[in-house]
Amino acid sequence: MTVPRVLPPPLRDGGGSRLAACCLLLCLLTIPSRADTPFVVDDWRFGTRETNAALTYCVDERDPDWPVARKIAAAVAGALLLQPKEYLIGNDPRTADMSGEDLDDTYRLLIQHCDVLFGFKLVPDAYPAWITITRPYYRSTYVYVATDPTWKSLSDMPTSHAIGATIGTGADMRLSQYLLAVAAEKRWDKFPMSSDEAALQAVLRGTTGAALVWGPALWALRKTNAEFATLHEIAPTPLPVSTADVGAILLSRQSFLRSSVDQAIASLTADGTIASILSGEHFPGTPEP
Hints:
Layout: H1 22-29, E1 54-60, H2 66-79, E2 83-89, H3 103-112, E3 116-121, E4 131-133, E5 138-146, E6 162-166, H4 170-181, E7 189-193, H5 196-205, E8 210-214, H6 215-224, E9 232-234, E10 243-251, H7 255-270, H8 273-280
Parallel strand pairs: 1-2, 1-3, 6-7, 6-8
Antiparallel strand pairs: 3-10, 4-10, 5-8, 5-9, 5-10
Helix pairs in contact: 2-7, 2-8
């Protein structure tokens, strides 16, 4: 069987987000030596926060969905009759260079700055024992985009063109499995990309015919680069639609708080609050019932 040609990924363009790099984090989480609680010097100094009537939570402004996450987080606090207390990651110079892919950094955030960290793709059984996940508050999809207006689906793209895909995502893995399973004459080459932005730029340059990117990342990047608005989405056929659920994480010892946050998310989903936030931002996501 002929293996599809894969080029080395381009250099990171500096705009990587934690959501886009989540699967890279998950790969780290599967390493046994990283399964234990991370070591933080003098972690005893942080103790337990006196939250009183407040819900302290972190939102990372480098995530593509952070404008939505902060509104949902504030709504969760309100549903719990607590004052929202936000810690914005990236706004603090001490965390400006943090990639979000390091478990020590994540642990430090949860013991030092917030009880709940919003904006994580929720992959079952992929997190270490010291982390617990909430129920999802929205589901979104990975999308294929192209410049050729005659292509309505991926099957319309000639195999002489390549697909640029952000490495490490669930959708990228499914695409790789598909390409390995089909006959060589029906197979596209796949170029691994370091970020969703790099994948979109490759389409604009003509290096690839289509890009496979996270829908919320496309939504955010179109706001900062007008050229990305010229790209149109095409159906993933012959592949199925790839989706991911997004929620929040907490320390596993916070079981009561996690249960309370889950109930708040369920209530905000049932009364239409989350749907209203998503539609108000024209965000490519749907609430999870």
